[in-house]
Amino acid sequence: MKKNVLIIGAGGVAKVVAHKCAQHNDELGRIAIASRNLSKCQAIIDSVTAKGSLKQPAEIRAYALDALDIEATKALIRETDSQIVINVGSAFLNMSVLRACMETGAAYLDTAIHEDPSRICETPPWYGNYEWKHLDECRERGITAILGIGFDPGVVNAWAALANKQYFDRIDSIDILDVNAGSHGKYFATNFDPEINFREFTGTVWSWQNRQWTPNSMFEVKRTDDLPVVGAQNLYLTGHDEVHSLSKNLDVPNIRFWMSFGDHYINVFSVLKNLGLLSEQPVKTAEGQEVVPLKVVKAVLPDPASLAPGYTGKTCIADLVKGSKNGQPREVLIYNVADHEEAFAETDSQGISYTAGVPPVAAARLIARGDWDARQMVNVEELPPEPFLTLLDQMGLPTRVKDEHGDRPWNA
Amino acid sequence: MKKNVLIIGAGGVAKVVAHKCAQHNDELGRIAIASRNLSKCQAIIDSVTAKGSLKQPAEIRAYALDALDIEATKALIRETDSQIVINVGSAFLNMSVLRACMETGAAYLDTAIHEDPSRICETPPWYGNYEWKHLDECRERGITAILGIGFDPGVVNAWAALANKQYFDRIDSIDILDVNAGSHGKYFATNFDPEINFREFTGTVWSWQNRQWTPNSMFEVKRTDDLPVVGAQNLYLTGHDEVHSLSKNLDVPNIRFWMSFGDHYINVFSVLKNLGLLSEQPVKTAEGQEVVPLKVVKAVLPDPASLAPGYTGKTCIADLVKGSKNGQPREVLIYNVADHEEAFAETDSQGISYTAGVPPVAAARLIARGDWDARQMVNVEELPPEPFLTLLDQMGLPTRVKDEHGDRPWNA
Question: Could you tell me which residue ranges the Saccharopine dehydrogenase-like C-terminal domain spans (chains A, B) (predicted)?
Answer without folding.
Answer: 150-396
